[in-house]
Predict the structure.
Amino acid sequence: MSRRPAVRDAAEAAVPAALADLGRLVRIPSIAFPGFDRADVERSADAVKALLDDLGIFDRVEVKTAVVPETGAEGMPAVLASRAARAGRPTILLYAHHDVQPVGDEELWESPPFEPTVRGGRLYGRGAADDKAGVMAHVGALRALTSALGTDFDLGVNLFIEGEEEAGSASFAQFLSDNADALRADVIVVADSGNWDAVTPALTVSLRGNARFTLTVRTLEHASHSGMFGGAVPDAMLATVKLLSTLWDDDGAVAVAGLTARDAATPDYSEETLRDEAGLPAGVSPIGRGTILSRIWNTASITVTGIDAPSVKNASNTLSPEVSVVISMRVAPGQPAREAYAALEAHLRAHAPFGAELTFTDVDCGDAFLVDTSGPAVAAARAALEEGYGVPAVDIGVGGSIPFIADLVREFPESQILVTGVEDPHARAHSPNESLHLDTFRHALVSEALLLEQLDTQTLRDA
């Protein structure tokens, strides 16, 4: 049997073990957010290291951390593995992350979030899709390659399995700088995106940037009785509601001067599909203007993702002196995130009602990403995806953000970056009942193994 069919058969055979190991990873609640147990993230990193050690192909496998430059604090543990290329072959860097989002309201989960559960052709659990499935796609593809070719292949392989992506990748740039030689590669595969649907693979060629911050609105020195002073004194909630309402027009489109949009065609995508994939009820209308995908991929969006104010349970007849909200803005590809943030801050300051005092804290910005699709690695990836899934790959944009890719571009400007994924539109990453479509995972693992086989036949000039 020739190499490529052997690799494909080995990849198909590798899927059950990969899913079993994925289940074991899902059981570890590796949440890197402040307030959660760091020991769980460390345990998750150790489990990933053990999987990479068992491959027997790396010159070294280490659990490493880097400091957060702004604070000097130690970042969360990542797993770094490296294997030098030989005979002029390229080196590929495989990225995924082993940390996960908090579970939110556990009552909304149909099965326990850290107990992997299979039903309806999907594996449910926090991290089952985002992004421990990405970790296991890499591991499974490498198992297939070594099963078919042995451990004596020439392709250089580096792995970087991050431990704090969901929490903002605070030490990511420092980690890249500290370990540049061990991470440097001709091709970088970031397995942290999605596909067009459960049966159609995709290469992500654009990602929006992001700007996230906390806004505090203050109108009073202390709380006051709403009956005694209401009607004459503006409370912070009134000011906050009026201020936030200026961010969107009547169609729900962002109404902030200075934000740009990308002019790029988008594939056909119906409102019916949007309703199905987003869970939009029949009586609720979409927002914005233009094609649906242009609204998601190519323009800015603003979402209020959190609010600190008196709860319903603790409500009293009181004028609130201060309200804080978390604002998350997605930035159109092509606009620097800091520039977009400056435009949004200027808008909020200019529209503060009643002279309300505004404070901006915890500002976090990440730039958008546009892929250069002219490189040979992109062509190889498209071919591998088509072979692995059985249908041609689609180039897609993604409305979400992966800010650390800008760090990769800055540190490794000559690398060809491929953004792939194991998720389908019903994965519900970050939400209750997150799940992995099992057939999509199988196709993704097979496709990556075929890509590795192809790169193992190329020279540096080809890649």
